[in-house]
Design brief:
Blueprint lengths: L2 H7 L13 H12 L9 E6 L2 H9 L12 E8 L12 H10 L1 H9 L3 H8 L2 H16 L3 E2 L7 H8 L5 E10 L24
Bound molecules: flavin mononucleotide (FMN).
The site of flavin mononucleotide has 9 residues, from loops.
Length: 200
């Protein structure tokens, strides 16, 4: 499928046919996931969840997304949160970058908050999200559909999956053959854009 067709057909799907996904398709999706960019402080990991009991447990740990359990596979996109900004000097690249982005007050909060796991999960989520979108787009290109799901209880899911302390779930990507047909995205609308400056 042409990439533009992939974008047009990428709508969130939350109903799936009860059909297994072949191992070679799973491997294609993992290749897509692992080809996403990562940073020098954060890398990703992917769980491939096909066991019905585990899928239902994960579903129970979501906010209004129990339907994920009906997908033939749930990809659990995780971050390696070993790196902690708290241990960096003011001159470090990571500290300079985060301060440029958010300002000192917010950085001080993020490095000062006691719940290190939660702060690191928040700060290091981006690569897992980008990888998740790689999975979705690759899936669409092969006729599958899915949805990003991040209103979830991360600690519960970490526990269900037995993840070590330096790895955390960030979001879920349930994938399957679609059992609903959302309207494709139109390409002739120029929206959410500005040129050069906001008010030009
Ligand atoms: C970062 C992110 C998190 C999302 N989390 C959820 C979620 O927890 N549950 C859910 O049902 N949909 C979730 N979605 C899907 C959005 O609801 C959906 O993308 C949006 O309604 C637009 O519809 P479309 O994807 O069909 O274009 C999420 C989307 C994004 C981008």
């Amino acid at each position: 499928m042409e990439i533009k067709e992939v974008y047009k057909n990428r709508r969130s799907v939350r109903k799936f046919k009860d059909t297994e996904i072949d191992e070679d398709i799973i491997n294609e999706l993992l290749f897509a996931a692992n080809s996403a960019p990562c940073t020098d402080t954060c890398n990703y990991f992917f769980g491939v969840i096909r066991d019905s009991v585990v899928k239902h447990q994960i579903g129970e740990a979501t906010i209004y997304a129990n339907w994920v359990a009906d997908a033939p596979v749930i990809f659990v996109c995780c971050s390696n949160i070993q790196f902690d900004l708290k241990n960096e000097t003011a001159e470090s690249y990571a500290m300079q970058g985060m301060t440029a982005r958010y300002g000192k007050e917010t950085v001080d909060f993020l490095i000062g908050t006691e719940n290190r796991k939660s702060a690191k999960t928040l700060m290091q989520a981006s690569p897992a999200y980008i990888a998740a979108q790689h999975i979705i787009l690759s899936a669409v290109s092969m006729g599958f559909r899915g949805c990003l799901v991040d209103f979830i209880n991360l600690e519960k899911i970490n526990k269900i999956l037995g993840l070590p302390d330096n790895i955390t779930c960030e979001l879920l990507v349930p994938i399957g053959y679609p059992d609903e047909t959302p309207i494709p995205i139109k390409t002739n609308e120029k929206k959410n854009v500005f040129y050069d400056k906001w008010d030009k």
